[in-house]
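input
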Amino acid sequence: MPNSISDEPFLLHRIVMHKIEKTTRVGTIQLRDTLLNVASVDITNFAQAVSASYHKRTSKEFAKFKESPKPTYEVLLNNYTGAETDEKFLTFSKDAANHLKDEMNKKPTSTGGYLIFADYTIHDRFIMAVLLNNKDGYTVDEDRLAIKMIDELNTDQIAMAGFINMSIYQSTTDARRYLSFMKGVKNISEYFVAFIGSDDDKATSKDMTKTFIRALRDYFTANSYESDTVSRIEGQVYNYCEDKRSNREPVSIEAISALINPEETTNFFEFTQEGDYQLNTIIESIDKTQLNRLQVYKYIGQGLSLTFKRALYENGKVQLTDNDNKIIIEMPEDMKQSIIDELK
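output
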């Protein structure tokens, strides 16, 4: 199995670029009349760089298309996927670009950029709509050994991005969210969300991971798990989630439920669904910072840096006093001696 999505083979089916300029309240659009050449190594590497820049981020929101009325973008997409040809993709991209321009015109503060549409496969199939901006760069004129400034597309600083996981979207049995928006150099703008046509039931990876961990701790408490058992299971859950995160795969609450209790495999899953957690059965992208809460506690501030494994708190080696805001740490002898030697 590949170590990450970047190790998956990248297959670019179709790609095109248009330009939207917005210097006044009304934007103007420059549309390309042909697709970019997917046989070009440069074009493929560019598309792969944009995809990689997106997939490595965890700061995303996940959603689905709103049900009614059917979003314009979804209608345009279905027109393309109903008969997939270069001509259909070009029409889809042009109509979608004009649709985005119309949404941007409703927002005086919106800005333009280079709009990339691509259809590609990397593990799953995706349709991406990405807005890129220019950045100043430098190149060398090899003949004269001179340096000159150029404008280049900044694939690391994506302004806006909306991706559709077509493998999920076209599945008749998968209830997972298939739309995702990446927070790039700007927050996810309302006009871009309106352009895609997502529903209001959006969730961030951070919030979903935080809710999942809260549900996990509540479950342990409600079922009177011993601290040693909690530490062992949390370690197993951490390893499972970290493996999924590193491979850019979704985390299944049902799989975690079976991991927690192999004999009663649905107990935790039912606990999350019956409680007021609003936790999805699938977490599309686990948040690393929140996931680390299963392993360590960290505090930095007021001249103090404190990090310890949560298992030390669970087994009483780190204790909090009730009233006088003190922490008691059971130190091994070598640590105690090190502190004494350092502070003398």
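quick obs: The first strand starts at residue 11 and ends at 21.
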